Amino acid sequence: MAEKIIDPWGSALVEDYEKIVKDFGLEVFDSKLLPDPNKIMRRSVVFAARDLKQIANAIKNKKKFYVLSGIMPTGERIHFGNKMVVENIRYFQEHGAETYILVADLEAAAARGVSLEESRKRALDFHIPAFIALGLDPKKTFFYFQSENIKVTHLASETSKKVTANEFKSVYGSLEPGRIYSAFTQVGDILYPQLKERMPGIIPVGIDQDPHIRLTRDIVRRTKQKYNFFAPSSIYHKYTPSLDGGLKMSKSKPESCIELPEDPKQVSKKLMRAKTGGRDTVEEQKKLGGEPEKCMIFELYKQHLIEDDKELDKIYKDCKAGKLLCGEDKKHACELMAKFMKKLTKDIESARKKVNKLKFVK
Amino acid sequence: MAEKIIDPWGSALVEDYEKIVKDFGLEVFDSKLLPDPNKIMRRSVVFAARDLKQIANAIKNKKKFYVLSGIMPTGERIHFGNKMVVENIRYFQEHGAETYILVADLEAAAARGVSLEESRKRALDFHIPAFIALGLDPKKTFFYFQSENIKVTHLASETSKKVTANEFKSVYGSLEPGRIYSAFTQVGDILYPQLKERMPGIIPVGIDQDPHIRLTRDIVRRTKQKYNFFAPSSIYHKYTPSLDGGLKMSKSKPESCIELPEDPKQVSKKLMRAKTGGRDTVEEQKKLGGEPEKCMIFELYKQHLIEDDKELDKIYKDCKAGKLLCGEDKKHACELMAKFMKKLTKDIESARKKVNKLKFVK
Q1: Of A115, A274, A280, A335, which is most buried by a Cβ count within 10 Å?
Q2: What residues of A are in contact with residue B168 (Cβ under 8 Å)?
Q3: Number of neighbours of residue A81 by Cβ within 10 angstroms
Q4: CB atoms within 10 A of CB A332
Q5: Are A341 and A133 spatial neighbours (Cβ–Cβ below 8 Å)?
């Protein structure tokens, strides 16, 4: 339920995410650990972490560390989750991280039947440009295709022997061979940058990716004698909720899901029907004020559309005070979204021209 | 028990191997399908097969087919099982097969902790020369290292999604992640030659390797639409029994196990203590004749030391008639074994010089 998962501006964690933190043994994310946290860090959209201190220390002491993430080159568009990952990658990149972006073409082939050639084409044509458009600095980034990185395979093969069936099942809840094969490939990806030089690394992910982090951290302990890798750190962002108030946008409900990029007119229609924290009548709302904590539009501001905290705060207060009504506010959101989508489309176009200069590693 | 597993010269399958054929759903190997069968084929040491007809047809109609096997570059020596595999590879090589030998260095690293560099060194220094010394024609063979063959990884990753946990368990009896990872790498190896051109292939193996063949054959059916691979054919050789009469030589009983190459004097000592089919007393043996069916020395003749069927037959008959006694026979075996070991050592030495001319593929 939306009431549970959308935390008020600046407030503590709400129930669902609190439960995740507890069940998964995560740390509550503390933005004060990091210098100049980005907006999703400051606003508790990034809500949990593992071993964040070793990254904070690396930043503070100007020690080497890395940030790594993957691109799944299926589909013609990306989603808000990818946008948050890039925002976090960018943050660490700007704070000195060696940056790795892998294209999960093996995974795309195995899970979705997309050929390696097709994945390569899509990644170069859209996904990598989209990441650059969202803020990734390509000059400071090493890219690779899983299908070309034999060292990832070496790590996957070797580390698969370090985990029993029961242990794997307790992390993933499944022993399907395809799942197992993919999981160890991801372990290989996460540790690959340390083959050249061991250093802390941070993996910004959605909470559904935590099993890979847990598995990798277990494996690091078990290969200590040979590799002495740093266990990967991680941070977790909340989902962007579905416009109807559900936990997570999903393509299966296209009317409540916004993809990137998407036609601004089409998005406006969806926004105008979004669930808000408005009262039953205008009169009531003027009297009692709105409930931004329950509002999908406010959540989009907070996660994606408004950079400036003061601007966000003003909206929050005006809504609470009954001064800002939903109709007007939705119009505002449509304008911001249209601006964002237009800029994104244009930036993807420009980024495409940089693709031939990317640094690929193996 | 030795009585069960050693079939009399030329006889039908004995109980243990019959059970394997039945339980695994194998064909009984029929040497008449193949032109000029080699000695272990003629003598029912090769006892079972899958889909041998498609290979027989390829030979008959001079169609393309391949033979593939792997080298596990652990240890300083090989064993009689490897020798039988090479004998069969050589047979198919001489009958037109495109030949692939892979070095299972990923497997060696994962299962035994041997570094890739060490595996490479061992393979080039000993294992490949030993295969050449035993009859492999290096000029007609494509070699590769698992760790360098990304296409094998692609197949492994993709095919891992085609099998459920339950199905895997029913074939391997285990869902250990390391086992799963290795199994799909082997599926990748077995199918790799068909990526270039689809054609039948034969994998000569010991019976313990059959799960890989079964898994690969299942996967071939499930990837028909995309790849339309031929299901791999296979042939299975019996174990070389332990000199004390056990099912299989094992390094854990060094006094009953002969490795290749091994010092002739040391081997002679072991042979002199081998279990034979001799009677309790010389008088009795002269009267009743020996029992070559129960004799480890005779099994070594049959599997390894005597090429000529007439020569083998004479020994069989002389033993049965009580004319050939165990002491004399063991001396003969020691001579043949010494000759074999000396030649092998010399041939490995010469083969080492050919290693720089091998054809490696990726």
Answers
A1: A274
A2: 177
A3: 19
A4: 17
A5: no
Q: Between A and B, how many residue pairs show a Cβ–Cβ distance under 8 A?
A: 99
Asked whether the predicted pLDDT for residue B45 surpasses 80, the reply is yes
Using CA atoms of B209, B211, B213, B219 in order, give the dihedral in degrees to the nearest 10.
Answer: -150
What integer is the mean pLDDT of A155-160?
A: 94
pLDDT of B55 above 80? yes
**Inter-chain contact A168–B177, Cβ cutoff 8 Å?**
yes
Integer CA distances (angstroms), A231 to A31, A93, B206, B207, B236, in order: 21, 19, 41, 41, 45
- Which positions in chain A touch B181 (Cβ < 8 Å)? 156-157, 160-161, 180-181, 184
> Model pTM?
0.86
Inter-chain residue contact B161 with A147, CB threshold 8 Å: no
Q: How far apart are CA B177 and CA B175, in angstroms?
A: 6
Query: Residue B89 is which amino acid?
Result: I
Residue whose C-alpha is closest to residue A46's, from A55, A58, A37, A36: A37
Angle at A318 between CA A316 and CA A319, to 5 degrees: 65
Distance CA B178, CA A203 (A): 25
Of A157, A165, A226, the CB nearest to B176: A165
- Encoding tokens for residue A276? 């808000």
Which residue in the block uniquely carries the two structure tokens 């030998």? Answer: B101
In angstroms, the CA B292 to CA B313 distance is 11
A208-247 as b/e: b if 16+ CB within 10 A: ebbbbbbbbbbbbeebeeebebbbbbbbbbbbbbbbbbbb
Note whether A311 and A43 are within 8 A (CB): no
State residue B193 phi and psi, 5-degree precision.
-60, -25
- How confident is the model over A281-330, as pLDDT tens digits? 999 999 999 999 899 999 999 999 999 999 999 999 999 999 999 999 99
Q: Nearest residue on chain A to B215, judged by CA atoms?
A: A177
pLDDT tier at B6, thresholds 50, 70, 90: very low
R_g of chain A computed on alpha carbons? 21
> pLDDT averaged over chain A?
93
Neighbours of A199 (CB within 10 A): 17
Compute the nearest-CA separation of A110 from chain B (Å).
4
Q: From B307, B253, B252, select the one nearest B275 (Cα to Cα).
A: B253
What is the Cα–Cα distance from B7 to B17, expressed in whole angstroms? 9
Q: Do A160 and B185 touch (CB under 8 A)?
A: no
Within 8 A of A157 by CB-CB distance, chain B residues are 106-107, 109-110, 181-182, 185
